[in-house]
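Severity: low
Component: inverse-folding endpoint
Summary: output formatting inconsistent between runs
Steps to reproduce: submit the following structure tokens with default settings.
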């Protein structure tokens, strides 16, 4: 029988697994939790914004800057890799600052490791919003990623984009290469692919989601997403016709509406209705004269 593990052995194994998880999670830190993208309140104008060296709205210097790489506010290393030596003294504020990042506009501490690694590994290097096409220096809010296409989004357009991201560029859910139903969908290309065209020849099968044949982005199952297709609406619009235009609508209500009065005017400005009224008056006068002629002359006093 194997020997029973002691409490110290169990504690050492748990600590080893925990350290392994921490090392693996360093490369997969959420963009919203990264130190260079943390929220910050200005000391002067009290406006909330992304962590910056200077306030985006009033350009005020922050009293306690935060490092964009390690996220510390106070350097407590007595004998470390600090570029500026401070033996036995804890540094805060500008005494801890070593540089300003050109990409995220945040402070970087005077640690040699942070100064050498942050410029190359800054997660906001190409952080241009998909909707408004603004960079970090052009807006004061934080930067986020879309949970479907993993594109950069500013704080103003993140909800609007994610609400309309699950829309395909095609009118059906069929594969673009054949007429089969697409089992996988790429949220960057906005297209569907069947199982045969995803598992191409010469590619090694992966354990996770297969990559997109076009952009190599991880595909998602179409059944797991609430996808919608691009639709077009055709047909005659049943808008109400204007009163000035006589031929603007051919609808049933406009063609057979007897309550409307349509008047037509000549080029000179005289209406045909006035001419019709004059003709009616002349006919009435002529009919009265004919009636008087049929009755004969009225008898005078000499005839009696």
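Observed output (run 2 of 3):
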């Amino acid at each position: 029988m194997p020997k029973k593990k002691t409490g110290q052995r169990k504690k050492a194994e748990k600590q080893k697994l925990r350290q392994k998880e921490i090392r693996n999670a360093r490369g997969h830190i959420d963009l919203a939790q990264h130190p260079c993208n943390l929220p910050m309140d200005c000391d002067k104008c009290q406006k909330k914004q992304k962590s910056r060296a200077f306030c985006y709205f009033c350009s005020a210097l922050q009293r306690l800057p935060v490092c964009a790489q390690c996220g510390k506010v106070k350097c407590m290393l007595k004998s470390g890799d600090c570029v500026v030596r401070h033996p036995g003294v804890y540094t805060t504020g500008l005494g801890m600052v070593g540089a300003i990042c050109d990409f995220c506009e945040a402070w970087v501490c005077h640690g040699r490791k942070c100064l050498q690694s942050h410029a190359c590994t800054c997660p906001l290097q190409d952080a241009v919003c998909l909707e408004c096409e603004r960079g970090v220096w052009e807006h004061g809010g934080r930067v986020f990623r879309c949970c479907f296409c993993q594109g950069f989004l500013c704080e103003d357009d993140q909800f609007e984009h994610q609400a309309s991201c699950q829309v395909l560029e095609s009118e059906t859910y069929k594969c673009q290469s054949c007429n089969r139903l697409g089992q996988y969908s790429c949220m960057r290309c906005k297209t569907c692919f069947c199982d045969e065209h995803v598992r191409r020849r010469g590619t090694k099968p992966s354990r996770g989601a297969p990559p997109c044949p076009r952009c190599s982005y991880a595909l998602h199952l179409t059944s797991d997403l609430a996808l919608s297709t691009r639709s077009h609406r055709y047909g005659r619009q049943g808008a109400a016709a204007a009163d000035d235009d006589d031929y603007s609508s051919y609808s049933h209500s406009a063609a057979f509406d007897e309550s409307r009065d349509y008047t037509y005017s000549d080029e000179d400005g005289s209406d045909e209705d006035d001419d019709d009224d004059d003709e009616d008056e002349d006919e009435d006068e002529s009919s009265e004269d004919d009636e008087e002629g049929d009755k004969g002359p009225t008898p005078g006093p000499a005839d009696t």
